[in-house]
Amino acid sequence: MHLDMDAFFASVEQRDNPEFRSRPVIVGAMPGRRGVVATCSYEARVFGVRSAMPISEAYRRCPQAVYVRPDIRRYAAVSKQIMTILGEISPLVEPISIDEAYIDITGLERLFGAPEAIAAMTKQKILEQVQLVCSVGVGTNRLLAKLASEAGKPDGLKVVAPEQVQAFLDPLPVSDLRGVGKQTIKSIRRLGICSVRDLRHCDLELLVAQFGGKGALHLYNQARGIASDVVGLVSERKSISKEHTFNEDISNPQQIRDCLRRLSSEVGRITRKKGLAGHVISLKIRFSGFETHTRQQTLTESLDTDIAIFRSAWSLYEKSGFQGRAVRLLGVGLSVWEVETPAMGDLFATPDEKLQEKRVYSTLDEITDKFGEGSLTLGLHKRQG
Ligand code: TTP
Ligand code: MG
Hints:
- The chain is an alpha+beta fold.
- The chain has four domains: 7-70, MutS, DNA mismatch repair protein, domain I; 73-166, 2-Layer Sandwich (Alpha-Beta Plaits), CATH 3.30.70; 172-222, Orthogonal Bundle (DNA polymerase, domain 1), CATH 1.10.150.20; 239-371, 2-Layer Sandwich (Dna Ligase, domain 1), CATH 3.30.1490.100.
- It has helices at residues 8-16, 42-45, 55-61, 72-89, 109-112, 115-130, 142-151, 165-169, 182-190, 196-200, 204-223, 253-273, 306-320, 344-349, 352-371; strands at 2-5, 25-28, 37-40, 66-68, 93-97, 100-103, 134-138, 157-159, 237-250, 278-287, 292-303, 327-337.
- Helix 4 (72-89) runs antiparallel to helix 6 (115-130) and helix 12 (253-273) packs across helix 13.
- The longest helix has 21 residues, at 253-273.
- Bound molecules: thymidine-5'-triphosphate and magnesium ion.
- Magnesium ion binds next to strand 1.
- Thymidine-5'-triphosphate binds at residues 4-9, 38-39, 51-52, 98-100, 153-154.
């Protein structure tokens, strides 16, 4: 299932300012200034106003609209509420943007009924709990669900059953498909293709000649409703880092080592708390006078333990060539890919040693949560360090 809020920013403004309801509302820059439309209410779309249009153009088309500056924090708070509601419906929710998410509803029929009923219930819950209207689409994969939610906008609810896939796709313009930019559209038009039906009747060889193997296959598959049905596995790179500034510059290697130990433990704890693991370690060193250097290394294995993070950070320091210089600031960072945490089954499948390590760290984290940072630290054998 794919869900997308209708005229999101503008709808929140209409909800919170009853005097804006049933009026054209344009959220974005102020008329007379530079800038663009972020979004507008459906009442304003009648006048041809669209997202990303220069505000001067919007004003020419619809001077009588209410013009509002965006209040992203408020919209983000509403977004969070919506994602929470979705999380109560399915354990697999993949937020795509501030107002859009994929929800895997496979296997929920016994709990909530047919796909139509699940979609209707979702819309109802959102309307009741945040007083906003959305469009929902259901299909056998991401492409179909997304196209179905777009097709019903606004206040849409569309289910594309497996036997309806081709009849649903065929009349759509090719520009509705994913990853079809202006350049692709131009080339496709040159081949005389307008609709998905035209595309489906086009030879794969012709598409390969025009768009290369990968691009051609992407189009060829989409025209037949073939796409990924995986929800929740996209990864996003994030960095978790901690740094410390000394009151006085230090050059004692033991003090530098202790500081890196502490920073590594803090980074490790945050990483584990988020259920993540990192594969790029970075070390930041600042000397007096703000001279700052970073060193980083890509690891062969993802890490989430204090000791492994420390070892990598320490080896970066040893290789840095900065030993002996007085240090003002030290920082340790770990770049992580956010991935779905493995199911419990995987945990029990790990070898004994790994399992034991997991237990040690979960105890360490519990105690640190309860009694504070530094209340318990792991000993590090000199030989290993
Ligand atoms: P969209 O879902 O693309 O648009 P929408 O929710 O306003 O309208 P629709 O009913 O067609 O879904 O984007 C969600 C929000 O993201 C939108 O309310 C404002 C913001 N946004 C921008 O700030 N700039 C843009 O160019 C777009 C497309 C969206
Ligand atoms: Mg939207």
